[in-house]
Specification:
The chain is 45% helix and 15% strand. It has 242 residues and is of the alpha/beta class. It has two domains: 192 residues, 3-Layer(aba) Sandwich (Rossmann fold); 32 residues, no CATH class. β4, α3 and β5 form a beta-alpha-beta unit. α6 packs across α7. The longest helix has 28 residues. It is globular and about 50 Å long. Bound molecules: nicotinamide-adenine-dinucleotide. The site of nicotinamide-adenine-dinucleotide has 27 residues, from α1 and α6.
């Protein structure tokens, strides 16, 4: 069992499918979690706020350290998916996706790193996607945003290892969360049926459940991954991006 006793965690997207599983897993491992989301979330401490607000993002790590008595782990998990080819993407789609998926993690990492460095180190886990490493079709804005997160992770993993700060990313393929279920609904499909079809496309026989991803985030945040810096860990059930 992974031991995170006494670790103080700032998690974004805490109300989402993966976020809720992260809260449960980290609490079971003994950590205290401050969850942030635009929706109400359940964690040891919760903040409701919009990650598109730059001032809010800039202040979050210091606020988390004040509330928790320090900051050991940052998990940049919040994200949105923007569908459609480039001719369908509006200026707003582009700005919103980059603000939430890229700029917020940039601001949170930038503010969290000096806090962690001052206390001997820490761990940052970013959420990219398999599509951030291998582009999938008809989602260029989302794919670009997740590629930026992957690239930022590799850069920070190198730049801040000397301060004892490990920065890594989880790169899931499809996960059974509101993100993909609402996508099916919007397209007029029955989410359960659509997921059953997707399950058949995965060599392991099913798409990921949120806990499958939360366990990898737990590993990357814990001492069990103590020698990993800048890694992009694909979690895909054996399914390649096509
Ligand atoms: N579900 C998948 O198939 C999948 C695959 C690869 C990567 N991911 C990534 O995993 C992460 C978690 O996604 P999920 O599947 O749990 O989706 P989700 O939609 O269930 O959760 C995302 C959470 O982020 C929050 N959020 C969105 N915009 C916000 C904002 N402006 N301010 C504050 N909070 C905001 C949402 O309210 C939501 O609770 C995302 O970064 C996503 O891109 C998901």
């Amino acid at each position: 069992m992974t031991d995170l006793k006494g670790k103080r965690v700032l998690l974004t997207g805490a109300a989402g499918g993966i976020g809720q599983a992260v809260v449960r897993r980290f609490q079971s491992a003994g950590a205290t979690v401050l969850g942030v989301d635009i929706k109400d979330s359940v964690a040891d401490h919760s903040i409701t706020g919009d990650l598109m607000d730059a001032t809010f993002c800039d202040a979050l790590p210091t606020h988390a350290a004040d509330v928790l008595g320090g900051l050991d782990i940052l998990i940049n998990n919040a994200g949105i998916i923007t569908r459609g080819d480039i001719t369908q993407a509006t200026d707003t789609d582009f700005a919103r996706t980059m603000a939430i998926n890229v700029e917020a993690p940039f601001r949170l990492c930038r503010a969290a790193i000096p806090i962690m460095a001052a206390t001997g180190g820490g761990a940052i886990v970013n959420t990219s996607s398999c599509w951030g490493v291998h582009p999938g079709p008809n989602h260029p804005v989302y794919v670009m945003s997740k590629a930026a997160v992957a690239s930022m992770t590799q850069c920070l993993g190198m730049d801040h290892a000397h301060q004892g700060i490990r920065v890594n990313a989880v790169c899931p393929n499809e996960v059974n969360t509101p993100m993909i279920r609402t996508g099916f609904k919007i397209r007029g499909m029955d989410p359960d049926k659509a997921i059953a079809e997707l399950n058949a496309s995965v060599p392991l026989g099913r798409i990921a459940e949120p806990e499958d991803i939360a366990d990898v985030i737990l590993f990357l945040a814990s001492d069990q991954s103590r020698y990993m810096c800048g890694a992009l860990l694909e979690v895909n059930g054996g399914k390649p991006v096509k």
